[in-house]
Amino acid sequence: EVVLTQSPATLSLSPGERATLSCRASQSVGSSLAWYQQRPGQAPRLLIYDASNRATGIPDRFSGSGSGTDFTLTISSLEPEDFAVYYCQHRGYSWTFGQGTSVEIK
Amino acid sequence: EVQLVESGGSLVQPGGSLRLSCAASGFTFGNYAMGWVRQAPGKGLEYVSVISGFGAETLYADSVKGRFTISRDNSKNTLYLQLSSLRAEDTAVYYCANTFPTSTSLYFQHWGQGTQVIVS
After folding, report:
1. pLDDT tens sequence across B27-60
2. Closest approach of B2 to chain A, Cα-based (Å)
3. Which of A9, A24, A94, B69 could form a disulfide with B82 if both were Cys (CB 3.0 to 4.6 A apart)?
């Protein structure tokens, strides 16, 4: 089963800064990777699917890239509502999530 | 607008059973596979189970296989999860989600707000 490793565990940034989150797969997953955002006390929300496609209604400051084993979620300029936990996810034999990256206010 | 509303979570003793429900609206329910994902306190997301649109195919995480049963009633636009032989490690918020198919995969698109299950 594919293992997804996210880094860093915590990212401390200020509003307006650029955030770069990484997700590494233990074996190639092609482009079959999604990113979710979970704000405190809320349900997760699909941000990016198939590695680089924004889900409906997602602002264009969010972008995804990568293929194979290395993937990146970039938030070009952090808004106050972007401080949250972000998970990557792949569906292989089963649906696997990374352990999450917390983007916190510096 | 897609809405998913979970219910049925509660405090239950180890070894007990519970049935969770998820009422769906705002989309053609029977056209979409549906799933359950859980989140233990302070932890990350964990896939639990998925069921196909007509209910013919069901998939489970190894951690719940043989103890949990997913089902759906398309006439009622409702998804269910029967939890049995519950353990302390099943304590979590349980989310239902509809799925979004692409040419390469299947993702969880819209999520409910979750229902809390405490096994103690």
Report:
1. 999 999 999 999 999 999 999 999 999 999 999 9
2. 12
3. B69
